[in-house]
Specification:
The chain is an alpha+beta fold and about 200 residues long. Helices cover about 30% and strands about 45% of the residues. The protein has two domains: about 5-100, no CATH class; about 115-190, no CATH class. The radius of gyration is 20 Å and the shape is flat.
């Protein structure tokens, strides 16, 4: 793994700007990877890749690692460091694997004690019901799809007005903020929903 200047992955945690944190200190993980292409007409004039690793700690503190690399002459920006982006991705994969059970445990306990688990403003019930922003839906009556940053819950046979509303806002959806690996594993485990 390429070396990051402020971040060191340890055997049982990480060090960031001289502070040490254990795996057990991690509450949530998220990674965002974006490629921006700059074009003039049909000609590509630049590309910028970025990666951000966000770590939310149990204390409420947040650690963010960012990397940008590429060439965008209109923005007068050039920094070719793809190894940083790859190092951030590798750090995420390592931490995600090591902390998966700890990050999934609160959702599993919630499912066991309350009969549902929450992700953002969405509740997934053992019974197959989903409640999003107060609207109750049945999993067997909706299609679940995902976009880069969102999960959409669309009725299979919507009426005309529902189709019109969906055109404006994409239909009922929630944002994928953090712990996407945990959410997808829970959806697979409890409801056999996978992408």
């Amino acid at each position: 793994m390429a070396k990051l200047t402020e971040f060191v992955l340890l055997q049982d945690g990480f060090e960031f700007r001289g502070e040490r944190y254990g795996d057990q200190d991690i509450k949530h993980l998220a990674i965002d990877e974006i490629r921006t292409t700059v074009k003039s007409g049909f000609v590509t004039t630049g590309e910028v890749d970025s990666a951000t690793l966000s770590i939310e700690l149990n204390s409420g503190a947040k650690v963010e690692l960012k990397s940008r690399s590429g060439f965008a002459p209109l923005a007068l920006y050039f920094r070719d460091r793809p190894e940083e982006r790859l190092a951030i991705r590798d750090a995420y994969k390592t931490l995600a694997l090591r902390t998966f059970n700890m990050r999934a445990e609160p959702h599993l306990k919630q499912m066991q004690s309350k009969g549902y688990f929450e992700y953002g403003n969405c509740k997934f019930f053992k019974t197959g019901d989903v409640v999003l922003n107060g609207e109750r839906m049945r999993l067997n009556e909706i299609d679940i799809s995902r976009d880069y940053d969102f999960v959409f819950l669309n009725k299979r046979n919507p009426g005309f007005l529902a189709k019109v509303a969906k055109g404006w806002n994409g239909g009922p959806h929630f944002r994928l903020r953090h712990d996407q690996d945990v959410l997808f594993a829970l959806l697979d485990h409890f409801f056999s929903i996978r992408w």
